[in-house]
Amino acid sequence: MPETNVAFITGASRGIGYAIASALAKNGIDIAGIDVNIDELQSSMKTIRESSGRSTVAIRADVGDYTSIESAVEEVNKTLGKISILVNNAGITRDNIILRMKDNDWDDVIRINLTGTFNCTRAVIKGMVKNRYGRIISIASIVGLMGNVGQANYAASKAGIIGFTKSVAREYANRSITANAIAPGFIETDMTKKLPEEVTKALLSQIPMGRLGTPEDVANAVKFLASDEAEYITGQVINVNGGMYM
Description:
Order of helices and strands: EHEHEHEHEHHEHHHE
CATH architecture: 3-Layer(aba) Sandwich
Strand order of the largest sheet: 3-2-1-4-5-6-7
């Protein structure tokens, strides 16, 4: 582990991203939270800073815009130090069946979820190569492995993240940089809370463990992959889904 341990986490203002930031901070890591919702992000980073005692910064940036992310990386390098951990978590959905899906619904999801992962990795990995150390963890999805009705755009973006992760792992393993993906199942977030009760019941019937996951379940997997205990694990997809997909 390097002298300075800084995590660059996208979509960190709430949900899974916030849980990841909180877990890593409690594990002794300084946090750079990235989000487009700066007010909520600042509040979240303040809470994490006060509860963990670690340094945090909140930066408004759009993962779909490389220039925006490049500027954010430069700011983190100046304020916190060299980035050793990247968590590509930012993501959106624009659900519809293919026949009704608009061009913007496809383009926006691919831009944020997949191109955003590429942009952040490209901006951060230069420093990791120089430091000969890095942990890149990208949040994929169970949907990227098994598909889902009405989510062709989301499934394609998450499957793309998995292929991208494996390529990064092969390219940079000789620089002591690992790249792995986590594929959560259905997690208790603002998104799933909006589902009708009958839909939630149908989902639960497909999960052997009989419950939705929590953001902390995903954060625990990230915490492990970010640690030195996972230094020989790269190019893998860790499923956190309660057995829904095996």
